[in-house]
Amino acid sequence: MNPTLIKVIEFFLSLGLLVMIHEFGHYCFSRLFGVWVEKFYMFFNPWLTIAKWKPGKYVKWFSFGKEMGAMETPNDDEDKRSWRATEYGIGWLPLGGYCAISGMIDESMNTEAMKQPAKPYEFRSKPAWQRLLIMLGGVLFNFLLAIIIYAGIAYAVGEQYVNFTDATEGMAYCDSAHKAGFVDGDIPLTADGKHLGYFSSEDLNAMLIAKQITVLRNHKDTVTINLPKDFIFQANNDAEAGQSFMTYRLPVVVSQTQPRMGGEKAGLKEGDRLIAVNGTPTPSYTEFTALLEQNKGKNVTLQYERDGQTVTVDNVPIDSNGKLGILLTEPTKIYKTTVKNYNILQSIPRGIEMGWNKLVTYVKQLKLIFTPQGAQSLGGFGTIGSIFPPSWNWVDFWNITAFISVILAVMNVLPIPALDGGHVMFLLYEIITRRQPSLKFLERAQTIGMALLIALLVFANGNDIYRFFFK
Description:
Blueprint: H1 3-32, E1 37-54, E2 58-64, E3 87-101, H2 111-114, H3 128-157, E4 159-161, E5 171-173, H4 175-180, E6 187-191, E7 194-195, H5 201-208, E8 212-217, E9 221-226, H6 231-240, E10 246-248, E11 252-257, H7 262-265, E12 273-277, E13 280-281, H8 285-294, E14 299-306, E15 309-317, E16 326-328, E17 338-340, H9 344-365, H10 372-377, H11 381-386, H12 394-412, H13 420-433, H14 439-470
Antiparallel strand pairs: 1-2, 1-3, 4-17, 5-10, 6-7, 6-8, 8-9, 11-12, 11-16, 12-13, 12-14, 14-15
Helix pairs in contact: 1-3, 1-12, 3-9, 3-12, 3-13, 9-12
C-alpha cells in the first residue's frame, strides 16, 4: 500500500478515536448529572448525515440538508435524563465528532434556545461544580485513554531501551553539565556508588542529586566528577531553556527525508549514515547540527555511508533554519537494546508514569510556541499526519495516538473561549465570585474564541502548505 495512504488512514483513525473519546467524556458526565445530551455524533455531519438513530423512535439513512448540530424541537413529555432522549448518528466528515449538550453556549451558537426559561435537565440549571466536571470530562477521558494505551503497550510488548554501556557514542550533555566536568561522549556508570543502568526517570534523578558520578571516557578511562550542591537547579534552568540534562549521542542515521528539502535532493535513503559536512567529521548528531547551524542558508558537501561505501554529494542546500530535512533513526534501532517486560499489575503504574511524564514535558514545551521559531514550526493536520509511520506498525500507531491524546487534553484545557478551558475559566470565576457571567458576555466570548481558533487553524495549516510548496 502507498505510504502516504497509510499515513492518511492512520491519521483519520487516530483523530477520529481521540475526538470521540473526548466527546464521550462530556457525554458520561452529562448523563451522570441528569443533563440532556441532544445529539452524540461520530464524525461531523454538515449537509449530510449518513445515519441517525433515536431509540424507540426512528432510524434514518442518508439525510440531506441538516446542518451539523442542528437542534430538533424538544419534546417535554420524554425523560431528557435518559440515554434514549439522545439522537445518535454518523456523519460523513471523519475529523472527530461532537456532543450537543442542552442549555449551554457552544460552537452551535444556538442562542435562541438560551433565551427560553431554563429547564431542570439543561446544563445551565446545574450547580457550577457539576458544570465544571462536565466540561473537564473530555480532557479527563483523553488523559485516561493515554494512560490505558501506555499501560497496554507496556503489558503487551514491554519497553525497549538502551543501556548506557551499549550506547557506544555515549551521551550529549547540557551547558551546566559541561561546566561541572562532563564531556560529550561520556558514558554514565555510577551515581554515589549506585549502578546506572539506562535512561530511566529513577537513574536520571539519581544523577541530578548525586555528589559524585563516575563515567567512562574515550571508552577506556574511568573519571569521577564531583557535582556542585546546586547542580540540580542549574540543570533545571537548562531544561527550562530547552536543554535536556543529557541525551543519547546518536550517529546520524537517516530514517526518512522530508519533501523538497536538502536531504531528499541529496538522494538520502533510510539507513544512510552521515559522516561529514564540508569535510568535517560528524560522529554524532551534536556535531552534525552545529555544522548545519553554521551553514544555514548555504549549500554544503555531505559525506555518508551506504552499504559500506562512502558517498560524497556536493551543493546540498541547508534551509534558513539550519535544517537538512531528515528524520533520525531511533536509538533502539541503532544500538543494542534490552527489553523490560511488565505483568498486568506492573503495567498500570508504568502507564500512569508514562502518561504523566508526557503531560509534564508537553506543558513545559508549550511556551516555545510563543517564540518566533516556535510559531514557524507550528503545524496543522499535515504535520500531525507526517509523524505516523509510512508502514503499518501497531505499536508505533498506539504510541503516537497516546501522545496526541495528551496534546488534545492540554490544548483543550487552555483558557480560550470556545475551548473547554474557556468554559472552565468562566465556571471557576462563577464558583469564586458566586456571580454567573451574562448570556451576552458568553455569546461574545464564544464568538471571539471561535475566531481565534479558526485563525490558529488557518495559520498552522498555512505553515504546512508553505513548507510543502516552498521549503
